[in-house]
Amino acid sequence: MLVGAHWRAAHDGLEGSAVDLTNGELRPAWDLLHQFVGRLGPALERHGDLAEVTALLEGLRRHGTGAARQRSVYARTGRLEDVVVDVARQTRGYEPGMTGGVVP
Predict the structure, then answer these.
(1) First vs last Cα of the chain: how many Å apart?
(2) In whole angstroms, what separates CA 30 from the centre of its chain?
(3) Which parts of the chain have pLDDT scores under 70?
(4) Which residues contact 38 (CB under 8 A, 6 or more apart)?
(5) How many CB atoms sit inside 10 A of residue 32's CB?
(6) Contact 14/69 with Cβ under 8 angstroms?
(7) What's the pLDDT at 63?
C-alpha cells in the first residue's frame, strides 16, 4: 500500500487524490493533509510551529505547489522553455535580462 500511496502522491500532488493509509481509500489530498495537521496540532502548538505550518499550507492552497504552477504554465503555452523561464523568475536573484542560459 505504501508503494501505491507514494506513486499516487508523486503523480497527483496536493491537487489530486491520496491514499488514506488507515483504510486504503482514495481521498482528496488536501483533506488528508488537514487531518494530519489536525492530529499534530497540539504538538505543533507546543513547539511553537503551528502558526508557521498553517501559514505555509495556506500559501500552498492559495498559490499552488511548484509542480502545479509548472503544469499550468505548460498547459497555457505548450512550451517547456516557458516553464523554465517561469521557474527562473520565481527564483530569488533572477532579474529580467539576465544571461547565463536563461532566456528572459
Answers:
(1) 44
(2) 10
(3) 92-104
(4) none
(5) 20
(6) no
(7) 86
